């Protein structure tokens, strides 16, 4: 069925009016096609280039144990043969013809595909993306080549000296649903993946009403909206919500702290490292706390903070930091701590004392609180400079929160108070269950006679 131009404009206008944030940058334009495909155009006429990105609500959070790592494999199969370009050779030829620079990423709550080309080739680029997103062939011979490539990325990650620590802490933190926080996957699942499993993923998540098309660069939004309707308008919607049909399971709360302290021995460890993790807020249940978490983490990163002065400047630690990862499904709060070997045993008690004081009235100054807000806001503004990268930021927030959440991020940060920080610490960190792992090699363990991490904290 064809829509008249007037009806099309009305449909687009109605969809665009659903976006409410008054803080959306003036050069960002939003719309939605009748089939549910969201559209975002970021106009930047500084250079004659355009970046086209397609993001899908997919990733490890949609994977049970039998599919762990296959969202990532799917991402690799995206830039392969499809109905319109039926071989890898032809695909590469087309990429060269268009002068495309392409890539994709897979994280816990988003898979995105993107490429940059000359803005005069906007139409070709939209059609190139359309063929890849809607008509992948998943050829058996191409999968045989790609399975070990994806598994090779996994092996490179495992070569990191801290891998054993990260992996065990994550398994303990997320329990039975570890796969939902593990985008890199499982060796056997990756190496035995079949085209049929790729089609299962496609039939669950790869629909216009679970995706967003982002176009950034030297373009006019009216033209992009019109062309998007021409190219993607007949993409059939799913007609169902995949997250209602296949709900993401909730993570079991952490409990039994005595069983969540352990030592990880690895011959690859060169320095002792501690990783301590709490279940933090998420954007479904406690949006305000996700913002407070960012402010608090930045306060503690400042050189003049008590956290840094009492641990690093005092010689207990070679390095220490705290971070929070915003997520739709339980964002982790992480302390990464490298104790000073010269004060090894005392350092853990020093860390525990700092955590115990996180919510005290004088743990940070008003100036440190305000500096954190300013620095976080400046960081976001700095990220807007490179349009090509900035749309990846936008698609991340689209998937893990909402675009309005991100557009209002700076104004909401400015509302965070000292009381908000104290409430956040008491709700999510202080006296709350956590998982902690200490990485040592055999010589370190013998030298310091470490038999229990719990004992080091006392």
What is the structure about, briefly put?
The chain is built from 20 helices and 11 strands.
Distance between the termini: 71 Å
Share of helical residues: 40-55%
**Number of alpha- plus pi-helical segments:** 20
User: How many E-type strands?
Assistant: 11
Globally, the shape reads globular
Overall structural class, as computed from helix and strand content, comes to alpha+beta
Poorly predicted parts:
1-18
Major β-sheet profile:
6 strands, mixed
Residue share in β-strands: 15-25%
InterPro entries: Metalloenz_LuxS/M16 (IPR011249), Pept_M16_N (IPR011765), Peptidase_M16 (IPR050626), Peptidase_M16_C (IPR007863)
Keywords: Hydrolase, Metalloprotease, Protease, Signal, Zinc
Pfam families: Peptidase_M16, Peptidase_M16_C
Signal peptide: 1-18
Q: If you had to describe this structure to a student in words, what would you say it looks like?
A:
- The chain has 458 residues and is α+β, with helices and mostly antiparallel strands.
- Helices cover 46% and strands 16% of the residues.
- It contains 20 helices and eleven strands.
- It has a six-stranded mixed sheet, with helices on both faces. A five-stranded mixed sheet has the order 7-11-8-10-9.
- Strand 9 and strand 10 form a beta hairpin.
- Helix 2 packs across helix 5, helix 4 (122-134) packs parallel to helix 9 and helix 11 (287-301) crosses helix 14.
- It is globular.
- The N and C termini lie far apart (71 Å).
- Mean pLDDT is 93; it is low at 1-18.
- It comes from Chitinophaga pollutisoli.
- InterPro entries: Metalloenz_LuxS/M16, Pept_M16_N, Peptidase_M16, Peptidase_M16_C.
- Keywords: Hydrolase, Metalloprotease, Protease, Signal, Zinc.
- Residues 43-175 form the Peptidase M16 N-terminal domain.
- Residues 1-18 form the signal peptide.
């Amino acid at each position: 069925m064809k829509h008249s131009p007037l009806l099309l404009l009305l449909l687009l206008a109605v969809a665009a009016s659903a976006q409410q944030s008054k803080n959306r940058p003036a050069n960002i334009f939003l719309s939605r096609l009748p089939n549910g495909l969201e559209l975002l155009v970021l106009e930047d006429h500084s250079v004659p280039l355009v970046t086209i990105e397609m993001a899908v609500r997919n990733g490890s959070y949609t994977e049970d144990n039998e599919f762990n790592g296959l969202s990532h494999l799917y991402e690799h199969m995206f830039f392969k043969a499809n109905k319109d370009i039926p071989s890898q050779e032809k695909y590469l030829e087309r990429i060269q013809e268009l002068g495309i620079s392409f890539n994709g990423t897979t994280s816990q709550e988003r898979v995105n595909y993107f490429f940059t080309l000359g803005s005069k080739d906007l139409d070709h680029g939209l059609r190139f993306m359309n063929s890849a997103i809607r008509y992948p062939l998943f050829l058996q011979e191409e999968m045989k080549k790609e399975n070990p490539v994806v598994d090779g990325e996994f092996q490179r990650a495992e070569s990191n000296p801290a891998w054993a620590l990260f992996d065990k802490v994550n398994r303990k933190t997320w329990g039975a649903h570890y796969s939902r926080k593990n985008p890199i996957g499982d060796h056997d699942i990756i190496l035995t993946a079949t085209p049929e499993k790729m089609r299962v993923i496609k039939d669950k998540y790869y629909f216009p009403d679970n995706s967003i098309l982002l176009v950034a660069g030297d373009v006019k939004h009216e033209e992009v909206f019109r062309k998007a309707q021409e190219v993607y308008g007949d993409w059939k919607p799913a007609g169902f919500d995949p997250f209602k049909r296949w709900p993401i399971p909730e993570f079991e709360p952490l409990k039994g702290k005595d069983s969540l302290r352990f030592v990880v021995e690895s011959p690859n460890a060169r320095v002792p490292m501690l990783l301590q993790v709490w279940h933090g807020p998420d954007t479904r249940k406690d949006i305000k706390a996700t913002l407070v978490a960012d402010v608090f983490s930045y306060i503690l990163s400042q050189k003049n903070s008590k956290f840094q002065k009492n641990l690093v400047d005092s010689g207990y630690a070679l390095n220490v930091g705290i971070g929070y990862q915003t997520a739709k499904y339980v964002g982790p709060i992480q302390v990464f701590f490298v104790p000073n070997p010269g004060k090894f045993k005392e350092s853990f008690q020093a860390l525990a004392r700092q955590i115990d004081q996180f919510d005290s009235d004088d743990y940070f100054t008003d100036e440190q609180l305000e500096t954190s807000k300013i620095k976080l806001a400046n960081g976001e503004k700095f990220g807007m400079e490179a349009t090509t990268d900035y749309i990846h930021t936008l698609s991340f927030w689209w998937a893990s929160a909402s675009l309005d959440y991100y557009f209002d991020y700076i104004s909401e940060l400015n509302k965070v108070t000292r009381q908000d920080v104290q409430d956040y610490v008491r709700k999510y960190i202080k006296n709350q269950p956590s998982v902690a792992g200490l990485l040592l090699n055999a010589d370190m363990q013998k030298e310091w006679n470490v038999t229990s991490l719990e004992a080091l904290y006392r």
